[in-house]
Amino acid sequence: MTAVAATAVPSVTAEHQLALSRAAERIAPTWPLDRWIAVNPWWGLRDLPIDRAEALLARRGGGRLTLAPEAYRQAWERGRIRPEELRAAIALSNASLDEAALLASLERHQAAPRVLASAWELAGEDTAPTTDDAFEAVAECCAGYFDHHQQRWERDTTTPLYAWWQDQSRHDRRLSTTQRRRVAMLPDDASAARELLLAELALPPEALEALAHILLLRVNGWASWCQGLAWHTPHAATHAGIDQLLVILLAWEWLGLAELEAARRARWAAQWEATPAPADRDHEALWCWQAALELGYQRRLAATLATPTAPHPAPSVQAAFCIDVRSEPLRRHLEAAWEEVTTQGVAGFFGMPITHSSAGPERDLPRLPGLLAPRYRTAEAPPLAPLHRRRHRREASRQGVRHAKYHALSTFTLVETTGLAWAWKLIRDSRRRPATTPSPTPLEGPFHAVGGEPLTTAERVELARGLLDALAPGGDAAPLLVLVGHDSASDNNPHHAGLTCGACGGQGGGLNARLAARLLNDPEVRHGLAARGAGLPEGTHVLAATHCTLTDRVTLHDTDAVPAALTPLLARFAQALEEAGQANREARAAALDVAAEDDETRLAALARRGGDWSQPRPEWGLANNAALLLAPRAASRGRDLEGRVFLHEYHPERDPDGHTLEALMSAPMLVANWINLQYYASTADHQRHGAGNKLLHSVVGGHLGVIEGNSPQLRIGLPMQSLHDGNDWRHEPLRLTVVVDAPRERIEGVLARQPDVARLVDHRWLWLCRLTEAGLERYTAGGWRPLD
Questions:
Q1: Mind listing the pLDDT tens digit for each residue in 761-772?
Q2: CA 609 from chain center: how many Å?
Q3: What is the spatial distance between Cα 206 and Cα 15, in angstroms, rounded to a whole number?
Q4: pLDDT confidence of 282, banded at 50, 70, 90?
Q5: What is the dihedral sign for C-alpha 61, 62, 66, 67?
Q6: Residue 84 — φ and ψ, nearest 5°?
Q7: From residue 475, how far is each of 462, 479, 631 by CA, in Å?
């Protein structure tokens, strides 16, 4: 490999640029900790069938999508997978295997696939640390560049990522003098450097795409962060996105290639021409085992949904909960506690696409699904000015201590002079006190996100109408309609937002519920809705509430505005909520290892889990999620779905044109898929797609993400403690089963119009089923087939 010269380099074709773009698109985005959402880490591979995607990742060193053979063996021996389910999986996949061959495959050693190698990995065959040095250097560069909170030396925020790396490389002692000189000779502009590097590497487009993907996978956490900027911080992606990171990785590959002797350089070039080996029988067998595991769950789900239930009276209260799987058992217990309550499932941001400004130094946070952009803004009301000042003073004090700790003159004196002063805090925090939930504060807004103007009456009516369309109460709205958001509470937990919500930027839904309730109770909005034929009955009052998923207590908000005529109804509903919370706490206690003889003790123990700064498992979050049901509540009411199903209200008879179903399959269904495969990936291949051990975490940049131990690699996904109780997994990795109550042609119409939805279904990233009077039928390449 020649050194960079001042002469012109061969032109790079458009196909080369497209190859780099395709490689970058293979990387899924990630969000910051305080705006955390669950992400399907294989989103960029949805254009491939799931087994082919796994083969591609295996060849490029990116892990596996099936479980280890031992997991399937245990499921078989415990009866979790039955012979009939194994035979059904064989038939469904058209595998050339039988039961004996599948069992034998679990006993054989699974040969490691032949993996494509970067130049640094070839160079490190004799000296293993070399590879780590190369990719850890890139990770350290990203950690330094993106940290705007913890580092002592502030960088120029207008400097692009590539230019910053090039400047920092002058002082990188992992590079030899010659290598540092070569980096300095690269163009300062990332685009010009990319052109030169592609010409120097001299790979055809197909090989270049594979190389670029390999390099990104080696720093997958930081690659995901850079990719995520285009999703949640677009203005930063232009100078710090994945394209900039890819130029740095190509430069490192160029440096590594120059270090290879002729034989290894020839191996590096030859590997791109090798034809990938077809999937072997063991690979095919593991996918049959995974399908059998999922078919077993689908059979149990079908049997549960087929269980007859008794009719119930017209509701006095309708309670709309988030589709979050943790809402399902509480809804079931609530309806059992009082049969005059009917619950509904809806997206937990309640149709309010807002970002919220708190009183204090905290930055504005979106409160809507991460795949959407906020259109409106709300703020805490002006009477909170004293609180605003207190929060600013508290944060200023914390920053003062942070800066003092790193000052050269205080390095050896700060602890000695202030240690005793901080002893009280250590003692206080060591006491297991209940986690506190902030009280609701007065709200202003909504305002337009741009310009800050209040919404007109027509705009507020349209916003309210969107929510009512999702709730679909029709003319049967009860006197009391309650919007129940959810939240969680835990201390000293960087992944707290992931327990709060898996979709809405890690923010609780109580504020959205309050805003939506105020909107639906507004007389002007009511009048506008009635004029459009979409209003609520005159006597219906809308109330907001928040369900704490840690303690299962539901807090009712703004009850002083409830009309006096509805006070007895409100009191009875509050009693039913208390009874439901008690029943749900009792059911959850064993899984959290909470032993208590009465509910008061049990409630106190759960609250202490959230306030205990040393508790790595305050709750299990959305672990064990497995299905999404788009159907009327009547299809699931009274059935025990084990807290594993996302429930969204859908009435097929009210949606003849299929517009509502299309919105549900292209939004809530995609969100559920992201949550489901985030948990699946973090369990099936935790080393690559999980966040590691909470006990070893250090937060990067205040809210950016976590690293584990001394490694600078950004860890994405879920921590081990969110999935494993120390003895066994608490999440069973199954692909999402989506069950829809709609005619076949309506579902197929959505697939025809929504390519991303069709890819997920056709390529087996999820299962699509239809609810019929005879049971469930599954969508397959050959058409709809009965589940049995």
A1: 999 999 999 999
A2: 23
A3: 9
A4: confident
A5: positive
A6: -65, -30
A7: 19, 11, 18
* 772 Cβ contact partners less than 8 Å away, ≥ 6 residues apart: none
Place of tokens 């004029």: 531
The DSSP secondary-structure symbol of 657 reads T
Mean pLDDT score, 437-455: 81
Residue range 104-112: mean pLDDT, rounded: 81
Token pair for residue 485? 């958001």
Q: Is 501 annotated as a binding residue?
A: yes
For 499-570, list the strands marked E by DSSP.
541-548, 553-557
pTM here is 0.93
Q: Is 322 annotated as a binding residue?
A: yes
Kind and range of the H or E element at 606? helix 599-611
Closest CA to 634 of 346, 304, 318, 342: 342
**pLDDT higher than threshold 90 for residue 545:** yes
Place of tokens 């809402």: 327
How far is 465 from 526, CA to CA, in rounded Å? 10
Rounded-to-integer distance, Cα 633 and Cα 667, Å: 20
Query: How much is the pLDDT for 3?
Result: 44
Q: How many other CB atoms are there within 10 angstroms of residue 579's CB atom?
A: 16
- The response to whether 288 counts as a known ligand-binding position is no
> What is the enclosing helix (H) or strand (E) of 624?
none
Interhelix angle 659-666/744-753, rounded to 10 degrees, is 60
**Residue 726 in 3-state DSSP?**
coil
484 three-state secondary structure: strand
pLDDT grade, residue 1 (50/70/90)?
Answer: very low
